[in-house]
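As promised in the previous annual report, we have extended the structural survey to additional targets. Below is the entry for Exostosin family protein.
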Amino acid sequence: MKIKIFSDPGYLPEGVYPVSLIQPFWPEYTKNFQIERGGYYIPPWDKLITNYAKISNSLFEITSLKEADFAVLPFDWLEVSGNTWTAKRNKSAYALAIDFVQMVKEARKPIIIFYCGDRSHEHIPIQDAFIFRQSLIGARRQSKEFVMTALYEDLVEYYLKNQLTIRQKQEKPIVGFDGCADQGNWSIKLKDLIRQGVMLATNGETFPPYEGHRLRNQALKYLSNSPLVETNFKIRDKMAFFEAKEPEEKLKVRLEYVQNMVESNYILCCRGRGNFSLRFYETLCCGRIPIFVDTDCVLPYDFKIDWKKYCVWVDSKDLPQIAEKVAEFHNNLSPEQFVELQYDCRQIWKDWLSYEGFFNNFWQHF
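The corresponding structure token record, generated without further manual editing, is:
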């Protein structure tokens, strides 16, 4: 089903990329996405737009506001809310957003707003908008709020030569994790307390960004101390991939991260600074089974997909029993079912969570 959409580059702040849905239609506004041999040149860490770009014209049609089914705010709301944890508003971007919203309102058209990133659970003061967030708190969810997929690249395509590695079932499940976790780091706790104080003082968002690191650390300890599972953990004291400055170092860390997944059966997936897990999407992409720690999260297409079929689902309050839940899930799978589930995890990522899969099914939100 092709959706007619309206947007206007005149409302795009200078130097800001259009939202992912629009990028293939406005290549002149995506300076790093230069046309090359009829395709797109993409920075190494943001490649997913390429496959979506190939089918974008079959899914969406750019039209006038009068003919459109929906209007799309051309830039991510992150540019409006600012780029710091204090959520200092970008006044010029906010003014552009409000002007665009007012124009759409006068035309009596529904509007779509994308808000991606760690803070995207925060309030957007636009009534009746369809809002697509990466971070969403279930208890605060409104009827027109949905979850946007979160991933940078197809790890199998770019790091595994497009060959999905399938593991055979062993007696004990092997649980993998490569990443940052709070190991009693008081600087992290202090940052959290300071931010909470700032937000309370300014009547702002009180969601604790570093709580995810504490929960990860708890889960890792429970799993490490259990005889029911084998562990394959590489604990880092910082978010090495995002903080590495040199491309060579980024690539090295990325390869280690993917290798950790390839050598594991299950991957611990717990929220980071936002109320979502990027690792959850990467795990499914690699055909591995997520151990999803639920912190009142919302997942994409939850109205179509029973996500508990594809992962070990652990409520955050049940972390002390996480090893038992993993072992029970693993023991209930036959060797054939274990193999099949790995293929299913990869396929559901391709069909629903890759950019081409997400936008191919986009119409189902409405």
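The chain has a mean pLDDT of 87. The longest strand covers residues 174-180. These points will be discussed at the next consortium meeting with the crystallography subgroup.
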